[in-house]
Amino acid sequence: MSRSWLNPLVLTLLLLLAARAVLGDGAQAVVRLSAHDPGFAAPLWGLVFAIALCGFLLGAAVTWAAGRRQRQRYAEACRRCELLERELTSLRNLPLDAPAERP
User: Fold this and answer.
1) Which of 38, 41, 59, 70 has a Cα at 20 to 30 A from 85?
2) Where are the transmembrane segments (predicted)?
3) Is there a contact between 45 and 23 (Cβ–Cβ < 8 Å)?
4) At 103, is the pLDDT very low, low, confident or very high (cuts 50, 70, 90)?
5) Is the C-alpha dihedral spanning 39, 44, 48, 49 positive or negative?
């Protein structure tokens, strides 16, 4: 019996519990960029959301950059395929009684 549904269910429940804890907490967090900076106060859920968003965007950028080589190979394969299709079309249009040219 497969329990492949159990892991996503448990993960979803844990994420909902964490979201409830963060959103239910009205605490303010003070962010200071240096020791002499007075900083600014923001809700904890906002900081957690901002950090998660930055991580998501960084992961998306890294994934997109890693796929560059595959996109280049795909574009080259498409160009070769179009060239071969044009050559096949020109060969189909040749008369049958004409002698074939040999290089």
Assistant:
1) 70
2) 40-66
3) yes
4) low
5) negative
Question: From CA 55, how far away is CA 73, in angstroms rounded?
Answer: 29
Neighbours of 34 (CB within 10 A): 6
Q: Which two tokens stand for residue 26?
A: 């009205």
Q: Which helix or strand (DSSP H or E) is residue 37 part of?
A: none
List the chain domain ranges: 12-92
Backbone dihedral region of 69: left (phi > 0), alpha (psi from -120 to 50 degrees) or beta?
alpha
Beta bridge partners of 41: 30
Name the CA radius of gyration of the chain, rounded. Answer: 29
Measured CA to CA, the distance from residue 103 to residue 84 in angstroms comes to 18
Strand partners, 32: none
Strand-pair partners of 28: 43
